[in-house]
Amino acid sequence: MPELRQDPASKRWVIIARERSRRPHAFVREGGMPGPGLAHLPTCPFCSGNEEHTPPESFALRDGTTPNGPGWRVRVVPNKFAALLPAGSTERKTENEFFRWMDGVGTHEVIIESPVHNLYIPFMDDRHVQEIVGTYRERYLTLREDTRFKLILIFKNHGVSAGTSLDHPHSQLVATPVVPTDIRATFQKAFDFFDDTGLCVYCRMLSEELRLGKRVILESDSFAVFHPFASRMPFETWIVPKKHGASFGLITVAEADEFALVLKQVLRKIYFGLKNPDFNLVVQTAPVKDEFEDYFHWHLQILPRLTTAAGFEMGTGIYINVALPEETAQFMRDLKEPELASPSLGPNVAEPPA
After folding, report:
1. Which candidate in 108, 128, 158, 170 is catalytic?
2. pTM here?
3. What is the pLDDT of residues 248-296, one digit of tens each?
4. 227 is catalytic
5. Residue 22: CA atoms inside 13 Å, Cβ hemisphere, count?
6. DSSP 103
7. 3-17+41-334: which CATH architecture?
């Protein structure tokens, strides 16, 4: 019989369709895992040597090389097709004293994760992944100083069905002058729980998941990874810090380094266990003005694109999940070496850095 499960934080309902459920192995990409492509693509604007095809960099990790040229390890540039731009006013205006609008003020950046075209996070050395997460932190802290920005969102689209247009590994960051309504609604539910109980709902959720253990995939000293009770889709994965903190911007350098290693391990499991599926990755964090509040708890969500939302989901906001989180978590826990061993990347493909 199907189940209706409610996310205790957002109060969102999810249908766990037991009668339509598929075993975890059924979500593994058919035809094997597509391997990485070329190490360098002459037409890719993100590849080393093609820096003139992007706007001037906002930030880069370099060893004394010239800005906007080769020799970088991680590079941040404004998005050439930005959703929001830094120039403009945050003054709210109206049309016919009814329709409200404002300039599209904000920042939209691309975080190019490697100079190598085919080097995905599961293949990177640990230090390189730590530099990527450190760049997330540095850009968040820098943009937080702009008082026009109310929310800073870090995300990654991997694969065509997840919304990416370039294969070269990259993440994105958007700073907005408003807190979007859907995000505000999620924060409000968390605030209501705190107002009723004096507790953080995410801390309580984490405590329960760790106590039960059946949806937990792995733990480190400071982070836990699990498939949430009311998962919206198969293999939805959360990485949650064990220490309460409302904002990603409060993470320390040491915590960021540990977080990077956990993220790499999780993405390796997803890459090899599911044969490199498309996915979206989002860092959920409190609005800038609320980053020291007790009601919210920052975390990272990974949403694999293994099924397609259709009319029912669009019309109701209720997702139908055809996989049990308890079973998908067990599948991920059971992935061991050699299943996670790096395969040969083939000719004309960059090996991971030593």
Report:
1. 170
2. 0.91
3. 999 999 999 999 999 999 999 999 999 999 999 999 999 999 999 999 9
4. no
5. 13
6. -
7. 2-Layer Sandwich (3.30)
